[in-house]
Amino acid sequence: MIRAAELIQRKRDGEELGAGELRELVLAYVRGDVPDYQMAAFCMAVYFRGLSPAETFALTEAMVASGRTIDLRGAVGRPVVDKHSTGGVGDKTSLAVGPIVAACGVPFGKMSGRGLGHTGGTLDKLESIPGFRIELSAEEFVAQVRDVGLAIIGQTADLVPADKLLYGLRDVTATVENVSLIASSIMSKKIASGADAIVLDVKVGDGAFMKTLDDARSLADAMLELGRLADRRVVCVLTDMDQPLGHAVGNALEILETRATLRGEGPDDFSELVLAASAHLLVLSDLGVDETEARRRAETSVQDGSALAAYERWVRAQGGDPAEDVLPAAPVVREVSAPQDGYVQTLGAIAVGTAALHLGAGRRTKEDTIDHAVGVRCLKKRGDAVAAGEAIAEIHARDENAAAQAADDVLAAYAFDKDPPFRRPVVLETIA
Ligand code: URA
């Protein structure tokens, strides 16, 4: 019988636990032999004491061992690539990166999550496409990556069940923001779902878990080390989440923006991140290309229409209708106007994400249903010049009352000044 109380106490007192002990604890928790209250106490001890690199790896391996794993390379016959973000506002990057990489001939397979709180989830965005099926079996997932070159699905229940339980527990016990716990949570899912090469987008800033570059670097280093130990090729990009990514925040609006970006008509920051992440994946793949050639191929796929064609092939393969005019549209669209001349100094990511959440684009609890049509389009972003009365944002709402409230909230998310702020690129750092 596992002595969970003893392990909690030793971690509380700053001791390093053995790999076998961590494995036993995680597996006993998944079996139901360790109750939530003990696991919550353990997570809090880890939150304050941290885990050594060896403990972090042991925890990750234990989480992988809690469920089944997928051998994508074996099934597809080639290395498969994946991309993951630590979560942000307006982050639809995977939806554009997948088709670009697939159009360049590299298989892309991703298991994704739902959004909670002010951050949106890739699955919620995909479900705004009529008919789109996110619940493929592991076998269907593998077959689609092999035959279509691209699949993005919800995580199957039997893959890393320890993370499902632990993440839910951490979410309500103030123990999410620990580098080892985040790194093991993300990397266990990446390792179990089978991709060989992974680009990890570590968000930094107001709308991210990691508020400072130093914290983001620590998380990136921890995930790179886990990738190395698990024999995966990993690149981390540290990217700006002090403002929403792109213009659109809200599910169907983000699908529209993805399509525009795949036509070469996307917002500058979003297009840059999509091309940078795609190029990294092409370099990590078996194409044998360098960064310059990878970037050229990614850009060409957008210019010649092959990326958009790959998007449409993928959406159809998962039962969806890829057309724009079938996406749900909100009945009320209201503009927000600039109160003064000047430049946008800041545009708070959390504030915009929360406004979209209140409109119904996200969930406050896991049980909430989502309104896929609603959201916010931030027409002006940090550094943009504005004239008094000019439209800076658009609210897409279910009714006039919700639109009025969101318009106030979004206006409050903006700060203006007469001088332009320092420009800050979307990709702040790349660590390999
Ligand atoms: N995303 C995850 O998958 N896990 C975490 O712990 C944090 C972000």
Characterize the structure shown.
This protein has helices spanning 4-12, 19-31, 36-49, 53-65, 72-76, 93-103, 122-126, 138-148, 161-171, 179-193, 213-229, 251-262, 268-284, 291-303, 306-317, 349-359, 400-413, and strands at residues 81-85, 108-112, 150-154, 197-204, 233-240, 248-249, 332-337, 342-347, 375-378, 385-386, 391-397, 414-417, 427-431. With 432 residues, the chain is an alpha/beta fold. It starts with a helix and ends with a strand. The mean pLDDT is 94. Helix content is 47%, strand content 16%. It is built from 17 helices and 13 strands. The protein folds into three domains: 4-50, Transferase, Pyrimidine Nucleoside Phosphorylase, Chain C (Transferase, Pyrimidine Nucleoside Phosphorylase, Chain A, domain 3), CATH 1.20.970.10; 72-325, Pyrimidine Nucleoside Phosphorylase, Chain A, domain 2; 328-417, Pyrimidine nucleoside phosphorylase-like, C-terminal domain (Aldehyde Oxidoreductase, domain 3). It is globular, with a radius of gyration of 21 Å. The chain has a four-stranded mixed β-sheet, with helices on both faces. A four-stranded antiparallel β-sheet has the order 6-9-11-7, sandwiched between helices. Bound molecules: uracil. Uracil is lined by residues 86-87, 167, 176, 181-182, 185-186. Uracil binds at residues 86-87, 167, 176, 181-182, 185-186.
List the helices and strands and how they pair.
Elements: H1 4-12, H2 19-31, H3 36-49, H4 53-65, H5 72-76, E1 81-85, H6 93-103, E2 108-112, H7 122-126, H8 138-148, E3 150-154, H9 161-171, H10 179-193, E4 197-204, H11 213-229, E5 233-240, E6 248-249, H12 251-262, H13 268-284, H14 291-303, H15 306-317, E7 332-337, E8 342-347, H16 349-359, E9 375-378, E10 385-386, E11 391-397, H17 400-413, E12 414-417, E13 427-431
Parallel strand pairs: 1-4, 2-3, 4-5
Antiparallel strand pairs: 5-13, 6-9, 7-11, 8-10, 8-12, 9-11
Helix pairs in contact: 1-3, 2-4, 4-10, 4-11, 6-12, 6-13, 6-15, 10-11, 13-14, 16-17
Bound molecules: uracil.
Residues 86-87, 167, 176, 181-182, 185-186 line the site of uracil.
